[in-house]
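Q: How do we represent a protein-ligand complex in a form that can be generated token by token?
A: Start from the inputs.
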Amino acid sequence: MKILAEHLNRSFWLSPASRLSIMKLRLSVIGTGYLGATHAVCMSSLGYNVVGIDHDPEKVAMLNDGHLPMYEPGLEELLKEQLATGKLSFSTDFADLATADVHFVCVGTPQMKDSLAADLTYIESSIAALSPHLKSGSLVVGKSTVPVGTAQHLRETLASTAPQADLAWNPEFLREGFAIEDTLRPNRLVIGVTSDRAESILREVYAPIIALGTPWIRADLPTAELVKVAANSFLATKISFINAMAEVCEAANADVTILANAIGYDPRIGHKFLQAGIGFGGGCLPKDLRAFMARAGELGASQALEFLREIDAINLRARQRVIDVVRKFVGDDLTGKTIAILGAAFKPESDDVRDSPALDIAAQLHTAGALIKIHDPKALVNAKKRFPLLSFASNINDCFKDADCVLHLTEWREYRQLDLEQIRGLVKNPLIIDGRNALDREAWRTAGWTFHALGRSD
Ligand code: UGA
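Then emit the structure tokens for the protein with uridine-5'-diphosphate-glucuronic acid bound:
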């Protein structure tokens, strides 16, 4: 992989001062989920000694054995390589981070079960477990996505439990599927600090990345926290905007893919994140929007984010719209109808099924009486754990067999490379509904399929 080869040769662009700090600074990463595992491996690849801490002994054992608890292109290879250097290790014991100078807190902040707000249990317990081991002059750096005001509150906690340490906030913008690239070549580094010393420590840590010309933005703690949720809210808004346009296009007999392409040429709008379809899911965008609204309410600013409620509603409606299309073409009564579903992950190049639009649609069709068969190149194990009552096909031909309808719900590359004539022979009815606007409509039609997509006239 290009990026691995490139950053392995990175020492040529490190200044002598940076090389010295890399030798000196020791890092810890608390939480080894998506964000933490990636951060630990990538920081080690920059030359640092890194210990990753997680309370889950199974996950720690896997990582120490060179296996990732999730799928992320290129990351397992880099993990193995870094373990072999002896500079990277994982542990369940917080005492093992006592020699580190900088501690990155990367634990999850999921949505609360009974409200829209973020659950800060893991972040608070990590800070509590970390405090007794912090050496003098060390820096705790939050990377998790948190409601604005959390960092200041944690700073006050640390001031009483570990006054020898300082706290900074450094939000993470990595995308699943591009985690290494986004960590080692981010499009910006944002740090929230309350002292010059904290900034200079972070400048040392990120010296190799700053040397690439990466924009460096210093902010106060609340601004740094807000940058993250504002960015995710903007991305979600862009997706829901184009999905709202898709609804209008359907009503007006127009084509949202042409519309998106045309407006995207305006550089103020851009083409990215204008792919209409079944909308956004995953462990970040949906819960971040909701937590942002909840926090704004606590701050007395709920009106400012009222529009995000509509963004969320448009997003959830996109899932329903695909079901409406199925009913329109397969029949209102779905009992006993066989539906092949291509894709379970919330997006391609990921095995993450958290709030996956594809699985939500599959579950709703199952509840309506349809016989569902789901294929995904990477996410079947996670999908089965989450929805044990649904049926899964690890062989794609089994997925198509006798289907009354095929739904394309996660745009994996392999679904664009199918032999359309061959699979037409497997289904009962050659009907494809493209929920991601990623398939070649003409090619499917030429191969004898009836083709429908969200937001496109026929
Ligand atoms: C998102 C942000 O893009 C990252 O910058 C951020 O760091 C991350 O959340 C986070 O908070 O940790 P990610 O969840 O990996 O990253 O996924 P995205 O690539 O943003 O996609 C989110 C969802 O939007 C997916 O379900 C995708 O299928 C959907 N999407 C994306 C669309 O429906 N249309 C588009 O045009 C683009």
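The mean pLDDT is 94. Residues 434 and 453 are 5 Å apart (CA to CA).
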